[in-house]
Amino acid sequence: MEPLTRDDARLLLTARAYLYELAHTVFSGEPDERLIGAIANDFTDGALRLATDEPNDAYDRLRVYLADRAPVFTEGNRLDELKSSYMRLVEGPDLNDAYPWESMYVSHRRLLFQKSTLEVREAYREFGYELQERGKVPDDHLSLECAFMAKMAEKTLEVWDVVFPGQEDGASKSASEDAFAPFEELRRLLDGQERFLNDHATRWFSLYAADLGKNDEGSMYALVANMIAAFVRDDLSAIAAVRSCACGGRTQ
Fold first, then answer.
1. Does the global pTM surpass 0.85?
2. CB-based contact 139:101 (threshold 8 Å)
């Protein structure tokens, strides 16, 4: 990813938070009209263009999929096709070897609640993130890992605005003279997200997407999973670019 201005870095942080929250929502429950609209809108397209190094072909295929099936998403049909797809591919009793939990991909035993699950829980705890229903849903579910990254991205954006406060006329100030502690927190948040992607998300998201594709290559969920897998790979470059921008703009 090319070097960023501080304005570009802030836009990128906003796009990251939005995309992780969208990914969390897609895999956390049955779809509705609002969710479909969010996936297919121009803001999602723009966010992906900001956050990915290469064109996201999976998203292009997803938009074609949604456009071709527009009548299915009318009030009368109540999204029955997609709800059935969600239960069959994501939450049903027979997932055909496409499991939305990290431990199923990084553990040789292919079981839930393995060592990797506890490592994910510890990563959450390090940054004060606690699941509301811990123990009922494994901590390493794809939707929960994306929810954690969304919260981290949102917090990073908040701290960014403390370190680099804007002016009323829209111009950017230099980093605040008393922003040393927030700057260290900004670096801690970026380092934590990079570590989580390397240790967890990038190790298995693409494997899960591939397995979903084997079950139903043309389904919305396989397409969204491929989109997310591409995004998390590129997000490592995005984090590095934001860190470089922040360090270059820091007041010594």
1. yes
2. no
Q: Which of 231, 224, 225, 230 is nearest to 39 (CA)?
A: 224
Distance CA 149, CA 97 (A): 25
Q: Which residues of 45-62 are buried (b: 16+ CB within 10 A; e: fewer)?
A: eebbebbbeeebebbebb
Q: Reduce the secondary structure of the chain to three states and give it as a string.
A: CCCCCHHHHHHHHHHHHHHHHHHHHHCCCCCCHHHHHHHHCHHHHHHHHHHCCCCCHHHHHHHHHHHHCHHHHCCCCCCHHHHHHHHHHHHCCCCCCCCCECHHHHCCCCCCCCHHHHHHHHHHHHCCCCCCCECCECCCEHHHHHHHHHHHHHHHHHHHHHHCCECCCCCECCCCCCCHHHHHHHHHHHHHHHHHHHHHHHHHHHHHHHHHHHHHCCCHHHHHHHHHHHHHHHHHHHHHHHHHHHHHCCCC
Residue 172: beta bridge partners? 166
**How many angstroms separate the Cα of 66 from the Cα of each of 60, 145, 224, 226?**
10, 26, 11, 15
The closest alpha carbon to 121, from 207, 113, 251, belongs to 113
**Strand partners for 206:** none
Tokens 């969208």 belong to: 22
The pLDDT tens digits for 216-247 are 988 899 999 999 999 999 999 999 999 999 98
CA dist 194 → 1, 108, 149, 201, 239 (Å) = 15, 25, 10, 10, 7
With 50 as the cut, is the pLDDT of residue 252 above it?
no
Choice between 167 and 184, residue whose per-residue pLDDT is larger: 184
